[in-house]
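[recover] target loaded
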């Protein structure tokens, strides 16, 4: 398995689309997650991340320029008890609501499929972190169209028990720019998580996202023993 450097991986593409990173800190004490959005259109770039309690939502930066909130405005992050949900769309609410009714992460996502943004059919990517007495575990999912066919949905879930310290998994929506946009392929990539504080990691990710296309970034450290959190949000529109 190839272990990738965060800076090099983020610089490998000009357009990742939206991306989720989840892992365990190098000292083994914290669950780490990051979510970023990128945009090509004015509508997609006209967004900011806004904290709302322990959740986080997207919001139009300039309401007068928002032409279509569909697939743009949603909660990327919600917390349900010992679980932190991170996704690239309104499936966050689906996961939250159905897990609150005792369904599993995977069962909840069986009720959803890729986005209806023809011809891209953007994959829905999702992650969940669970804090347990013995530590943490997490899972990631991607729902994508089969070869661009909107009548066929492929569903992949990857579960990580007792993850290795100093490692994270990274999944994103696109394999670069194009028309239509090429969907992500393969299992989540493995990244090295450097032994740094949250501000340093936030700066590392933000600095290495494409300057023209990056829009917003969310990073959270969760203390595995206490559940206490540290959160950082960076918006290009300020």
């Amino acid at each position: 398995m190839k272990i990738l450097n965060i800076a090099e991986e983020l610089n490998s593409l000009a357009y990742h689309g939206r991306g989720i990173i989840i892992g365990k800190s190098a000292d083994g004490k914290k669950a780490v997650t990051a979510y970023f959005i990128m945009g090509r259109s004015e509508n997609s770039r006209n967004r900011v991340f806004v904290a709302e309690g322990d959740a986080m939502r997207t919001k139009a930066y300039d309401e007068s320029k928002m032409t279509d909130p569909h697939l743009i405005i949603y909660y990327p992050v919600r917390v349900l008890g010992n679980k932190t949900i991170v996704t690239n769309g309104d499936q966050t609410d689906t996961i939250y609501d159905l897990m609150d009714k005792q369904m599993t992460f995977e069962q909840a996502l069986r009720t959803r499929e890729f986005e209806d943004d023809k011809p891209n059919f953007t994959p829905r990517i999702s992650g969940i972190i669970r804090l347990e007495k013995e530590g943490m575990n997490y899972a990631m999912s991607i729902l994508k169209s089969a070869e661009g066919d909107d009548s066929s949905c492929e569903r992949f879930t990857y579960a990580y028990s007792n993850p290795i310290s100093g490692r994270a998994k990274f999944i994103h929506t696109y394999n670069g720019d194009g028309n239509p946009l090429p969907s992500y392929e393969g299992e989540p990539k493995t990244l090295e998580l450097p032994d740094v504080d949250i501000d340093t990691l936030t700066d590392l990710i933000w600095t290495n996202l494409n300057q023209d296309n990056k829009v917003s970034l969310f990073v959270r450290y969760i203390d595995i023993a206490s559940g206490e959190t540290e959160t950082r949000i960076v918006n290009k529109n300020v």
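[recover] notes: Helices lie at 6-10, 42-45, 91-99, 105-109, 198-208.
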